[in-house]
Amino acid sequence: MNISKLFYSLIGTALVAVCPLSAAVTADNIAPYVYPSNASATPGAMTYLADGKTYVAVSDDGKRIVRYDIKSGKELGVMLDVETARESRIKSIHSYILSPDESHILVCEKSVPIYRRSSQATYYVYEVRHNVFAPLSAEHPVQRAPQWSPDGRMIAFVADNNIYIRKLDYNTEVAVTKDGEINKVINGVPDWVYEEEFDTTCSMVWSPDNLTFCYLKYNETDVPMYSFTLYEGTCDPKTDYALYPGRYTYKYPVAGKPNSRVTLHSYDIDTRKTKDIVFNDERIEYIPRIAYAYRPERLMVTTLNRAQNRMEMYAVNPKSTVAKSVYVDEASTGWIDPSAWEDTKFYPDFFMVTSEQSGYNHVYQYSYSGARMRQVTSGDFDVTAYYGCDPVSGVHYFQSTVSGAVNRVVSRIDAKGKVIDFGDTRGTSSASFSPDMTYMTLSYSNVTTPPVYTLCTSLGKEIRVLEDNADVRARYGGVPAKEFFTVASDGYTLNGYVLKPSDFSSSRKYPVIMYQYSGPGSQEVLDRWRIDWDCFFVQQGYIVMCVDGRGTGGRGKAFKDCVYRNLGHYETIDQINAAKYAASLPYVSKVGIFGWSYGGYESLMAASKYDYDAAVAVAPVTDWRYYDTVYAERYMLTPQENEDGYNSSAPVNYVDRIKTPLLIMHGTADDNVHLMNTMQYVSTLQSAGKVCDMLLFPNMNHSIYGCNSRSLVYLNMLNFFDRNLK
Q1: Would you say 559 and 550 are in contact if contact means Cβ atoms under 8 Å apart?
Q2: What's the rounded Cα separation, in Å, for the pair 103 and 130?
Q3: What is the CATH number of the domain that holds 538?
Q4: What is the rounded distance in angstroms from the CA atom of residue 259 to the CA atom of residue 697?
Q5: pLDDT band at 17 (very low <50, low <70, confident <90, very high)
Q6: What is the pLDDT of residue 23?
Q7: pLDDT value at position 275?
Q8: Three-state secondary structure call for residue 585
Q9: How many CB atoms lie within 10 A of CB 339?
């Protein structure tokens, strides 16, 4: 996209257009440093087969699913070839799901995004033995979230907000639900806020004996509608709107407004009858997860109250509908961290959870009777991912901050408490495991090393290197490495990094851009490989600094929870103190601040209380009353419960203090942080007789990606900082 494909908005006299772009730097110059050009290679997804010796993966040309030897990586055979399969209707494989018995494969050629995580596609069922394709559904050409039954003889899927089951043995299709309706009732897949804030795209599960199917129903009837304008545009043009704009309308609950009413149901495969599973607890507002725990009479249901400071887990018998509470975690201050439901793992005789009850996030083992069996990890560090365990040996695998908040270490701990770390404890390691925990793919990077992916045994013995990203190292070999530092703020020592030009001299003066995200539980200051816009900016004579203030993760619950009910307060103090520190350095001339999303919010908050030389906010929240229930209320409660907190945390209430030159950028089709945030902020600026620069990206969502738009975000930011910091 060239600059003529963007449009500039003027509201009264409160805005000035962004000045013409520098002729010296173009979007093409920035493109190699931003997504997707800057992405490191990752190994192709590996599906381990039941024999424990082989796996399958899609070939490089996307036309075959190939079987490989795990240890050698040698190709052993082809499971599927779209060019030779009978009745093939696809030319390449976008994604696939292997049936549990490995006799069939669900395949799609192309998926269409719905929101950030969800998508829909036309799926085909491939029968391996007979080498033949067939559509998943003849009646519903587009499907969502297909789920194999454990015996591989049935597939559940969602179409038009209803659940259907395809029975392969009989070539029949059965409707599980019939009440699905757009913007009213959704069956089997989550609504917008569940998908976004609970990180889920599927809300249905099969029982281990294939006889029962359980699902969540989301009744959105009482959730207020939100809509935004769509234009024809030139990036994937919407020709229906060539003369008149269109609108996209969906259900979006803002803070304090009604959520979807979520209910749990079980469907009997043989009788085709549905039972309602009712919890007689008015505190239950959310059900972020459902999962079977090895037995058909043990459906595990994770629930949250609306404030998200109480999590309760139930063991439910779907046939009798009897529910038994087996676990409760309550936060006396703050909130239940999302890892509590994201990292839960179930085993035949026990389940594993993570909890911050000790002041740090650690792993605990519980019986299905509800008794705590043991605390697996302990110490003044956070477990940042729990991968699972070998239930026979009692060995557990996890990632943590044991070597400091800026590092991530993958470790194993045995039944006696002996801990072994895998690889370098300085830098960032992560792991993914085979289903039986026999093998793991271990990744490692640091500020000077692109990610290296190694296939290892679960004991840590290296089998082979899957990807070393040597080409990435060569491509960005001249980029200066980040340097870590600490800065004092309000009695705390904060972690930061700085990126300096390769020809840096302390005798010269440089403008500084303070980059931050600052959201609760997030971290930007990490010893990891990261190539982005900042690497290009330092080539243009800037220093980029980043400081993780209070509220961010990796440093225990107290450090994170101090922002509770008062977002933007302590984060702002810390960002301002970091800016003052930067300004005090003898080689610093001016200081600006930049952030995207929560970072954009914090840029506006900080610029309201400190005179930066320039500030840039992309897709910022300007009042938490405009944002969704789950996220805003997790940290702020409802506006009715915390009116003062919402008032004091809203940048829109501080425009009278703004002296800093501002650039605000936003996608007009942002379904996450609505354009309303920027428009209301700019309108308030106008009423106060103040100006800012504003750039809107037509039809772009929260990520502002596609048709070179991402590069243009940073090109305009560079131009703006050049005007104000140099």
Answers
A1: yes
A2: 10
A3: 3.40.50.1820
A4: 30
A5: very low
A6: 53
A7: 98
A8: coil
A9: 20
Q: Could you list the residue range(s) of the whole structural domain that residue 31 is in?
A: 3-39+478-725
Q: Is the domain of 508 the same as that of 437?
A: no
- Closest alpha carbon to 228 in 623, 622, 674: 674
Helix (H) or strand (E) holding 273: none
Element housing 133 (H / E): strand 132-135
The CA–CA distances, whole Å, from 94 to 111, 407, 518 equal 8, 34, 35
pLDDT grade, residue 323 (50/70/90)? very high
Cβ atoms within 10 Å, residue 476? 17
Does the pTM exceed 0.85? Answer: yes
Give the pLDDT band of residue 537 (cuts 50, 70, 90). very high
The answer to whether residue 366 is domain-embedded is no
Work out the average pLDDT over 705-722.
Answer: 96
Question: What is the percent of the chain with per-residue pLDDT over 70, rounded to a whole number?
Answer: 97
DSSP state of 79: E
Domain boundary among 446, 468, 490: 468
Q: Read off the amino acid at residue 119.
A: S
Nearest to 577 by CA among 555, 550, 595, 558: 550
* Integer Cα distance of 272 and 264 in angstroms: 16
- The answer to whether 265 and 215 have CB atoms below 8 angstroms apart is yes
**What is the number of structural domains in the chain?**
2
In whole angstroms, what is the distance from residue 666 CA to residue 679 CA?
A: 10
Strand, coil or helix: what is 130?
Answer: coil
Count of CB atoms within 10 A of residue 693's CB? 22
Q: How confident is the model at residue 181 (pLDDT cuts 50, 70, 90)?
A: very high
- Mean pLDDT value across the chain: 95
Q: How far is the C-alpha of 54 from the C-alpha of 67, rounded, in Å?
A: 7
Q: Is the dihedral of CA 686, 688, 690, 692 positive or negative?
A: negative
Residue 14 has pLDDT above 70, yes or no: no
- 172: which 2 tokens? 């029949």
From CA 606, how far away is CA 615, in angstroms rounded?
A: 9
Above 70 in pLDDT, residue 278?
yes
Which pair of structure tokens corresponds to residue 442? 């271990």
Burial 163-195 (b: 16+ CB within 10 A, else e): bbbbebeeeebeebbeebeeeebbbbbbbbbbb
- The identity of residue 674, as a single letter, is H
SS3 536: helix
Distance CA 269, CA 231 (A): 46
Closest CA to 634 of 569, 556, 564: 564
Please write down the long-range contacts of 71-75, taking CB distance under 8 Å and 24 or more positions apart: 71/463, 71/464, 72/464, 73/464
Give the Cα separation of 574 and 576 in Å (integer): 5
Domain match, 512 and 601 both? yes
Give the distance, in angstroms, between the CA of residue 370 and the centroid of all CA atoms in the same chain: 31
Shared-domain flag, residues 408 and 550: no
Tens-digit pLDDT profile for residues 582-597 = 999 999 999 999 999 9
